[in-house]
Amino acid sequence: MAKKLTITQSGEIENTGLSKTKSGVKKREEPSTLSSPSATPDATTAGQKKKVLKKKSAKKEAAPKGEKIAAKEAISTKKPKTSSKKDATTATQKSKVSVATKSKSITELQVTFLLKFSTHFGQNIFITGNHPKLGNQDINQAIPMQYLNQEYWQITITFQLNEIPKEGITYHYILKNEDGTIDYDWGNDKKISPAYVKKSTLLIEDAWNFAGYYENAFYTEPFQQILLPKPRQVADTTKINAGTTHLLKVKAPLLSADEVLCLCGESTILNNWNTEKPLLLKRYKDESFYSIQLNLSTAKQALQFKFGVYNTNTKQFVRFENGKNRTINATNATDTLAIMNAGFAVLPNNTWRGAGVAIPVFSLRSEQSFGVGEFTDLKLLVDWAKKTGLKLVQILPVNDTTATHTWADSYPYAAISAFALHPLYLNLKKATSTENLHLLDSIEAQRLQLNALDTVDYEAVMHLKQQYLQQLYPLQQKVLFQSDEFKTFFHNNSHWLIPYAVFCYLRDLYGTPNFSEWPENGIYNESAIEAMASPDSEQYHAIAYHYFVQFYLHSQLQEATGYAHQNGIILKGDIAIGVCRNGADAWQAPHLFHLNMQAGAPPDDFAIKGQNWGFPTYNWQQMMQDGFAWWKKRFEQMRYYFDAFRIDHILGFFRIWSIPIDAVEGIMGRFVPALPIHINELYSRNIWFDYYRFTKPYINEEVLAEVFGNDADFVRNTFLQYNGFGNYTLKEECNTQRKVEQYLAHWNDDAFTQKMKQGLFDLISNVIFFEEEGSNAQQFHFRFAMDATISFRHLDAHSQQQLKELYVDYYFRRQDDFWMKEALQKLPALKRVTNMLICGEDLGLVPACVPEVMRQLGLLSLEIQRMPKNPQQTFFHPNDAPYLSVVTPSTHDMSTIRGWWEEDKHKIQQFYNNELGQWDNAPYYCEAWINTAIVLQHLYSPAMWSIFQLQDLLGMDESIRRNNPNDERINIPSNPKHYWRYRMHLTLEQLIDANLFNEALQKMVQESGR
């Protein structure tokens, strides 16, 4: 018998994950069979059926044409055991349902749930929902179902009618695999409606909704609210007719506005397959599926049928669905309503494709902007996107990054708050009331001067805007704070707004964002913060000023989003993987972060020493304790403004590159979590292991000569101490990279100092292993690229070979299953809290499990032509992209198409010959036709989305593109102190008026089918 789910002390499911036996995304929901409810039950559990069950993957199985379940294998009417909780009054019971038939009053409803799902031995199915008898959505109280046969699981539960809420009972299924991992039945549209309570018994046959089905993407908010056509015929409410015996429900997201689903089948009841008179399904208001009521009381046997598409405008049958015939069984039970939730109609599901443009808000330029792009400029960008046929605008993170009040705060991924918006993007005129507009006259000359600059002057713009807003605050604060709009905003956002505002006040009061250096309030105390934020406190207005600014930012971004929606365009945001270690989030909830570690990325061709982003890493175990509440609030905040979002560095949900706080270079990090190398593995390979030789910087005369050359004596005398046997160690004051940085901070900033700094950094990173903390020298992690170290080169040949084999196993084999389970403790739970379209930035050193997890969860991947994920390929062709993906020729972290063309001439020649099909020498510069050819490759890709940096689109036209492509680059990842200041060289108004270019782009987009 199936057992209840095992939950950890944190309240989370143990080892949440995907079944390793799943075969992946099926093309479409297979036809279903609805059985009679009056037959003999088979109560044998999955465990008892071990001998007869075939080992097959946990997926839906198609029934052969005409196949139906034998009568003696149908559902029992015997009530099984349910949750032990008493049926106490709950919040959902406040609204009662009372239903009566003509003949008698119904006081209870017996519901048999029948799930079509083929399992193998060791797997168990549970049901949960928003009702006490379904565990009140508490996974820990999910109800075990009974195994029926190789295709079905079932359970019967009796509900009292006065316990059914007016909005109905929403439920879904859970699969627990033999290894303890969990799979979720996707969606929230499985519901028992009060309208169904016309009879005393319900038989519900459900199809498992696999998260990776393409169709699920089309039920996200951007598609349902903006991108897909609205059906012209929508019924008001579901009403079950007195003679109805069966209710069929099915989904088909990609029908045109004039199309509906229809049904054709055998016998006169189903119109004898007559496509001229099909039975039309209805779509009801606020429901995602089409449905039809049938009276099969006169049917003598099971009936075969198929769904089809019918055009209500032309009155023509369009087509049948693909796949086998479906089967529905007759019933002679007058008190039973049979409901078939048939999943998705088997129709083409990869025909919708769209194109979009990507640009940071700060890079926008309009005639009215203030030397930097503002939220109001997004409206002009939307106008241009609509004119050219684009359906999506993608921007970089727009959260407040104000830590130092210098240009270093231009880095948009180092937010001091994951919730607050950046004052940089506020349009001052829109924030100014009519009676105060004259104040803008005093700064108009400065605005024009800043707006004429080629790049963003971050410090000047921020200084002028803050100065003006501080002048505006006392003039408008009272009226604003009394408005209903502000009160609603404050109520909905106070959980982050008050701590953020107090943090900003203390940051400026003490002159540093580093709360560990504050003389007071360095440790967050909620009561003390509330007292400071009280309207009666002396500091109130200095704190409330930030409420004032945030309200206007919120209003302006929401208005821009609404404008985009009115024009059929969606807005895609960006969730940064980290937050600033000296920010409001880390101050308010330090337990959610590892403040002694830094997030980054391992070395690659673009950053040979790795990347150190400086963010604290997440304490995922702590975050699980409250069900990822911080992340859920973060997703909810995104929903105010965005329809879709990009998860920056989604690999961090599998494992994060974690660098100790005393290190500077990314190469000093390792993946966390990771399964370590045990010392016994080294001994078993006959490796002579010396703890100090393998885990400490290896320094001798040969190493010093190789690294420092003629300066070796200076280094030896200044930074090292001799420890015997020809080896040296670094002195205490310079034995970490951070100490070296501090030691040399007062030296002249010249070539010699840089040589010393980099050389000492290289000595410190000249190790084979990093020890696992707390392992007592028993467990270790490989330093990345350890075979490139001098230390490795000085080992004997046998040790080198054995270490190489272990290194490959460590990085590319042993971690995959472990990292998959790590990701599946986080991503499914987070995906369930939002209905936005989610895209993952899955670039870098991608574990083998990542594509499978993203495919199983229906997350869109990112595919870049010059960064193939297959190490055997030099380039990725957009034509090979999976449907659930975004293709792009470049991102903000790399050069544009034109800039890339001038970087590596050998690779460019390969690309020119092999990817563009040209046989002569590649032009030195990227001519407009080359840029256009690359854009076209991406437009014609089968991927759901092709998204382009604006610079790459402008590169197709020599008359409007920038002269120097190197001026178009937004970020250089290898430079941790990069100044983010790129701006368009055209104004948006000029771009909108570039008719020849716009018409050419619009034609390309349209002809590509996007």
Summarize the SSE layout with pairings.
Layout (H helix, E strand, L loop, with lengths): L32 E2 L64 E2 L4 E2 L1 E9 L7 E6 L13 E2 L1 E2 L4 E9 L8 E8 L5 E3 L6 E2 L8 E7 L6 H4 L3 H7 L18 E6 L7 E7 L13 E2 L1 E2 L6 E5 L8 E9 L4 E5 L5 E3 L7 E9 L9 E5 L18 H12 L3 E3 L33 H4 L12 H8 L6 H24 L2 H27 L15 H7 L7 H27 L3 E6 L8 H5 L4 E2 L2 E5 L9 E2 L4 E2 L1 H6 L3 H11 L4 E4 L8 E5 L9 E3 L4 E2 H6 L6 H5 L5 H8 L3 H8 E3 L5 E3 L6 H7 L7 H14 L4 E3 L7 E4 L7 H4 L3 H16 L3 H9 L2 H5 L5 E4 L8 H9 L3 E4 L20 E4 L8 H5 L3 H11 L12 H12 L5 E5 H5 L33 H5 L2 H13 L3
Parallel strand pairs: 1-20, 4-12, 12-21, 13-21, 22-23, 22-40, 23-24, 24-29, 29-37, 38-39, 39-40
Antiparallel strand pairs: 2-3, 4-8, 5-6, 5-9, 7-8, 9-10, 9-11, 13-17, 14-15, 14-18, 16-17, 18-19, 18-20, 25-28, 26-27, 26-30, 30-31, 32-36, 33-34, 35-36
Please give a handful of descriptors for the protein shown:
1010 residues, alpha/beta, eight-stranded mixed β-sheet, eight-stranded parallel β-sheet, 40 strands, 17% strand
Strand content: 15-25%
Largest sheet features: 8 strands, mixed
Distance between the termini: 51 Å
Low-pLDDT runs? 1-30, 32-103
Structural class: alpha/beta
Average the pLDDT over all residues and give the rounded result: 88
Query: Residue share in helices?
Result: 25-40%
Structure, briefly:
By secondary structure, this protein is an alpha/beta fold.
Descriptive overview:
The structure is a single chain. The protein is α/β, with parallel strands linked by helices and 1010 residues long. It is globular. A hairpin with a 5-residue loop joins strand 33 (720-722) and strand 34 (728-730). The longest helix has 27 residues, at 484-510. The strands form nine sheets. The protein has an eight-stranded mixed sheet, with no helix packed on it. An eight-stranded parallel sheet has the order 37-29-24-23-22-40-39-38. Strands 1, 14, 15, 18, 19 and 20 form a six-stranded mixed sheet that branches. Helices cover 28% and strands 17% of the residues.
